[in-house]
Amino acid sequence: MSVKLAVVGATGSVGREILVSLAEADLVPAANVVALASDRSVGSEVSFGEDDDLTVQALNGFDFAGIDYAFFAIDARTAKKEVKRAVEAGAMVIDCSDAFRLEPGVPLVVPGVNDAALGQMKKNICANPSALAILLACVLKPLQAAVPIKRVVVSSYQPVSGAGRQAMDELFTQTRGVYVNDLPTKEHFPKQIAFNVIPQVGAFESDGYTEEEATLAGETRKLVGPDIALTATCVRVPVFIGQAAAVTVEFEGALTATAARDLWKKTPGLSVIDHRADEGYVTPVESAGDDLVFVSRIRDDKTVPHGISFWCVTDNTRKGGGLNAVQILESLLKARKKK
Ligand SMILES: NC(=O)c1ccc[n+]([C@@H]2O[C@H](COP(=O)([O-])OP(=O)(O)OC[C@H]3O[C@@H](n4cnc5c(N)ncnc54)[C@H](OP(=O)(O)O)[C@@H]3O)[C@@H](O)[C@H]2O)c1
Question: In this protein, which residues make up the domain named Semialdehyde dehydrogenase NAD-binding (predicted)?
């Protein structure tokens, strides 16, 4: 089957990981992939696998006719406008921004968690969840399938790469600035991120939650179960790659930490690294470059009748971003073959 693909935002963190995962999956030759970005990047090159480079073209004015599938890895405001243009030209879109994630008729998909949702696509748009929602969906789904989840409390530790390439530069520049006594300047984050943590990801809403915290609750309900109550505190930390969370789950019935560990051990894509000793858990740095979701620090929550607490982490640009988007394409191609 020969399909033509476009990757919009090919020069960004997620776009580049989409190209890496696409080349690794060996779904199409480089000649069938178009790399698009802003006018600033026209003519520059991005790698596609070890042997090929793609010359970046402008999204502005690009004609999507003949493109079968288009990945969008750009900001939500531009995506809202440009995704519709791609769909009208006949492309099926996998969008990585938060523009369409909670829209009815747009499946929000984590392959391996809720593949069947792809069958409910109404607008030729499928949404890739946030890195944090992907991480949570992967760990919560096997638990929810065993015993319904009542309530989830999440504290996230979010890397700067989740805010894009320029945000990574800001952590680097600020860190260097602190060492040479050059006061850090702020552009992407509301406070200094080097040698600090910031309890704000996204803008504040009127109820005191941030956008990231509010959409996490909505995305988790769409991915895992509509009745799950979830409260989150999302925190940006001075880490480049690796989305981590400390999670406490309360269940409707009995499910122990031992039972949860056994369920996770049987789940593809998850790795349980949980030794009650120094080094017996996985940190963000160790998750970088890996496709797995790691679960550690699994224990019973002794404050409620049925509850557990644990730590989980994944590479936000791989399973938390580009890889998940490519896995969605693989599922769509499989469904197309069956037709
Ligand atoms: N990073 C993550 O962990 C993650 C995970 C899941 C989802 N997401 C979402 O994915 C999207 C991309 O995130 P990112 O981290 O990859 O951002 P990024 O590193 O800042 O990259 C942004 C990309 O968008 C392009 N772009 C910006 N304005 C454009 C325009 N007007 N027209 C065409 N292209 C334009 C940029 O091109 P130039 O290089 O030419 O400026 C660049 O390729 C965001 O919506 C983000 O929320 C991110």
Answer: 4-121
User: Are 303 and 328 contained in the same domain?
Assistant: no
Asked if 153 and 46 sit in the same domain, the reply is no
List residues near ligand 1 (CB under 6 A). Answer: 9-15, 37-38, 40-41, 59, 73-76, 78, 96-97, 130-131, 161-162, 164-166, 316-317, 320-321
Instruction: Give the CATH number, domain containing residue 45.
Output: 3.40.50.720
Residue nearest atom 5 of ligand 1, based on CA coordinates? 321
Alpha carbon nearest to ligand 1 atom 29, residue? 38
257-274 residue pLDDT tens: 999 999 999 999 999 999
- pLDDT tens column, 75-114: 999 999 999 999 999 999 999 999 999 999 999 999 999 9
Bridging pattern class, strands 270-272 and 293-300: parallel
Query: Which range marks the domain in which residue 106 is found?
Result: 5-129+321-338
| 134 CA: nearest ligand 1 atom | 6
Q: Measured in angstroms, how far is the CA atom of residue 120 from the centroid of ligand 1? A: 27
Question: Is the distance from CB of 28 to CB of 326 less than 8 angstroms?
Answer: no
